[in-house]
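## Example record

The block below lists the input lines for one assembly entry, exactly as stored, with component labels intact.
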Amino acid sequence: MTMKFTKDHEWVRVEGEIAVVGITDYAQKALGDIVSLELPKIGSKYDQGKHFSIVDSMKASSEVYAPLSGEVVEVNSALNDNPQWINESPHEKGWIAKFKADNLSELDKLMSEEEYRKYCDKHVH
Amino acid sequence: MTLKRTPFYEIHKAAGGKLVEFGGWEMPVQYSGILDEHNTIRKAVGLFDVSHMGEVYATGPNAKKFVNNLITNDVNKLVDGQILYSPMCYEHGGVVDDLLVYRFNDEKFLIVINASNVDKDFQWMSEHILGADVVNHSSDVAEVALQGPLAQKTLQKLTSFDLNSLKYFYFTEFEIVGVHCLISRTGYTGEDGYEIYFDNANAEKIWNALMEAGKEFGIKPCGLGCRDSLRLEAGLMLYGNDITQDVTPLEAPLKWTVKLDKEDFIGKRALLEKPIKRKLVGFELLERAVPRHGNEVYIGGEKFDYVTSGIFSPTLQKPVGFAFVPVDLPLGDGIEVKIRDRLIKAKTCSYRFYKIERK
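Predicted C-alpha cells for the full assembly:
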C-alpha cells in the first residue's frame, strides 16, 4: 500500500479500487490549527485536480484538490466534530474522503514519497 | 520592498517563530500554534513582541491643544499617568487610525499608533501641528506586551514597585533588570496585562528577564495570530478590518470615544451631521464554518454589507465575527453570511464575546 502525493499537498492511498485522500503532514503544519472543514457529498464526482473540500485553519481557508478522478463513496464525518485530527494524524485519522477511482493510471502523474519530500524541501526556501 | 525587523528578530527565529509580513514588518505569526498561544494567554501568561507599533511624542505648551484637536475622545479628562483610547478622524468622519494617548503632564504626551499607519499618521499629525513639538520615535522604541491572568505575578518578580497600585489604563516608569521602562496596564487581548516600552538596545535583556520570571507560570512567546483571535473575542477593533477611512467611530461601536460636547476637533462636524445607516455588531454562525473579513452579509435575502472580522473562537468554541447591519436591526436578529458560495445563518449579538472584571 504505497502513498502518492500531489503538488498541492494532498496524499492518496489506494486500497483495491478505493482511493483514500487527505492532506499531508507538510500541509497541516503550514496551515496550523484546523478548526473546521467542508466535506464533499457522497456520490459527487470530481475530475483530477478539482477542489472537493475546504479546510479552515485559524489563519486561512484552503481548498483541497482531488488527486484522482472519481466518485466520493465515503467521507470522514467524524472530522466535523474533531477537525484537529487533521493536525494530529494527517495520514491516518485525518483522512478526508474515499473515492472510487475512474482510472488508476492517473496515479502515474503523482509523486512518490521520496519525490514529494524533495519537492517540499525545495519549497521551504 | 525590504521588510523591517524588530530588535527581537533573532529571538523569534531561535524560539521557532513562524515569520510573516505584517504592515511592512517581518513578525512572528505563531510559535507553538495559534490555539495553544491563545489558551496560554486566557489561562496563564504570554509575551508578545509589539515593537512594530509606532510611538510619537507631543510636547510643549501647545501639546494638549494639538492632541485634543486630533482625536475624538477628550484628553482633558486625563490626569498625569493616565491613558486614553481614541480614534483620530478625517474631516469626513472616517478613521485615520485608532491610538492610545499617554499623559505624562500637561505638556507631554505619548501617542501610540498602529504599525502599518505610522507614516500616514505622522504626516497627518504634521499637517495639524498647532504649534506643538511632535517627534516620531517609532524606530528607537521597542515594545512587548505581557498578557494574561498571571502577568502581574510575572512582572512583580522583577520590581519592588507595587503593581496593585497600577490600575487599568494607567502607566508608570521603573527599571526592569537595570533598564529604564515605561509600563502601562493595557493590552489588546481582553486579559489583564502590561505593555512595556524601552530602548531597542535592551530588547534581548528585557525579553529574557520576562521569559525567565514567567517560567514557573508557564509563560510562552505569542505571535500575531493569537493576538488577532484574542482581540476579536474581547470586542476590540482592528484598524484596516473593522475601522477604516470609510468607517466612522459612530458606525463602529466607538460612540463612547466620541465627545461631541468638547471643543472643536477634526471630523466633529461630519460626526454631528452625517446620518448613521449601519452599525457594527457581533454575530455567531449557526453552522460550523469560519467567517472571514470581506464575507458578504445578507439581510432578508438582500446583500447589505460585509463581515469586518471573523474567527473560530477558541474560548467560545464557536465561529464568531463582527459585521455591519442596519442601524435599527435589533440584537438577536438573524442575518446570513456568504462563505464561498453558501449563505450561512447567523445570529447577531454583542460584539464583546469575552469580558473580565478589571482591577
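Strands of chain A lie at 3-5, 10-15, 18-23, 34-38, 45-46, 51-57, 61-65, 70-75, 97-101. The CA atoms of residues 69 and 75 of chain A lie 16 Å apart.
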